[in-house]
Specification:
Blueprint lengths: L1 H16 L3 H93 L1
Length: 114
């Protein structure tokens, strides 16, 4: 009886500690599927992040081009304004010189006539 009892205990211990190959294979397959799903998700997230970064870079480039165009237009407006002011100033100086020459000529004539 003692041998039967010890044999039963020994069989129970083996049954508890040993797992079947099917269970191990099933757990390995499940772990492999989880790893594959995780890697797929990571790949999709990386792809989405790259797409988003590309869109952001494109938007930034478009905004930079628009800012450059605006800056160019404003620069051209400033240049046109400076040219107009320079022309106006030159005309004013020319008129002032003509008036001064005319006044000098008139004064010289008056003195010559006296």
């Amino acid at each position: 009886m003692k041998k039967v009892f010890l044999s039963t205990v020994l069989l129970a211990a083996f049954a508890i500690t040993l797992t079947s190959c099917r269970d191990t294979k099933k757990k390995t397959d499940e772990a492999g599927e989880q790893i594959e799903e995780t890697l797929d998700e990571a790949g999709n997230k990386a792809e989405d992040a790259l797409d988003t970064a590309g869109e952001k870079a494109e938007d930034a480039w478009d905004e930079t081009k628009e800012a450059a165009d605006t800056l160019k237009e404003k620069g051209e407006e400033v240049i046109d304004s400076v040219k107009a002011k320079a022309k106006e100033t030159a005309e004013d100086v020319d008129k002032a010189v003509d008036d001064a020459v005319k006044k000098t000529v008139d004064e010289t004539k008056e003195k010559a006539e006296q």
